[in-house]
Amino acid sequence: MVNGEKERVSLLFMKALVSRGSVDAVSQQMASHPQYLESFLRTQHYILYMDGPLPLPYRHYIAIMAAARHHCNYLVYLHSAQFLRVGGDPLWLQGLEAAPARLRLLDHINKVLAHQPWLTACSHIQALLKAGEQCWSLAELVQAVVILAHCHSLCSFVFGCDTDSDFAPLAKSPNDTPPTFCPFDAANGNTNVPQSLAAPAEHKTRRREETICFADPSRFVTDPDFCYQEFARRDEDHFQVLRVQDYSWEDHGFSLVNRLYSDIGHLLDVRFRSVATLPSVHSPDLKRAIWNYIHCVLGIRYDDYDYGEVNRLLARDLKLYIKAVACYPDATKTPVCPLSWTLLKASERIHVNLLIMEARLQAELLYALRAITQYMIA
């Protein structure tokens, strides 16, 4: 990394420390690609903290729900800490049943987008927008969907980079000292404060908050058996292929999401363009093959693309890795890295995981926004 890039990363980390009190592990891993990191942090900060129809505690709770679908301990703990930091009710962290009914209504579309996004339908949108006293506004729902898709895809990056396995919050030392890292500490900037220095009342409060943060992710999940299944192109009646020529990000999704949730379309578009143009040893054809392969296994097809290129450019072990990280990261835990990766720098491996994350993010958004479009014109 050249000096200019190091200065850019330092500035980004300084902004993160000022705004959130910490620099999380995900941002540190992305630091090898400063151009992308900047667009990622800007988008994430916007959807979680800037102006929008949803209250801040709702946003982090939705993020918890999304991360829990993939049993992603790291993100569940991180957003639990942020949820408390922005004034969220600790009782909600007892589990999904303790949350308000409006949030519980998101459970179905959360699990569908996370595991089988092609099932997202106009009826799911209608159920949320016409739920009586608990109904969502269209603007609220769009922001919620963006947060869900963002966190689902971020789970893929976390597992692909093995961040989750490095995070063992429930481990205790023999003398029952707290975990080495607590996201509540990180959320408040107390990353290196020894317990012995904390006042007794503060110590008791922090221990209670730590216990809340370290809740089992499964308590935020219903229907745990609902998971990824192969997209069945043969069953045209039930699983219609989403053809990009009929509904694309550039021609349809971008304008709709930007209209209903101001500026987010531009921020997301910068992310998609940034990851595609990062300097890399990977050829443009290889990056396109990775992107289109992920969309293919999620039921999205490009009529102008020769899918023979996927088999020509992607070795079988790389395809297996990509599919696992994109479609069922919770089941892989520690994905088996392709043999070809042993020759790559860490930054190049991270680049592939960024491509996987962004391709998945766009796929989920396309399905959700198409369903919203269908609802609006029905």
UniProtKB/TrEMBL annotation:
One of its GO terms (biological process) is cellular response to leucine starvation. It catalyses: a hydroperoxide + L-cysteinyl-[protein] = S-hydroxy-L-cysteinyl-[protein] + an alcohol. SUPFAM superfamilies: AhpD-like (SSF69118). It comes from the Eukaryota. It holds the Pfam family PA26. Keywords: Cytoplasm, Oxidoreductase. One of its GO terms (cellular component) is cytoplasm. The keyword Oxidoreductase applies. Its main location: cytoplasm. InterPro entries: AhpD-like (IPR029032), Sestrin (IPR006730). It is found in: Cytoplasm. GO terms for molecular function: L-leucine binding; oxidoreductase activity, acting on peroxide as acceptor. Belongs to the sestrin family. This is Sestrin 4. It comes from Nothobranchius furzeri.
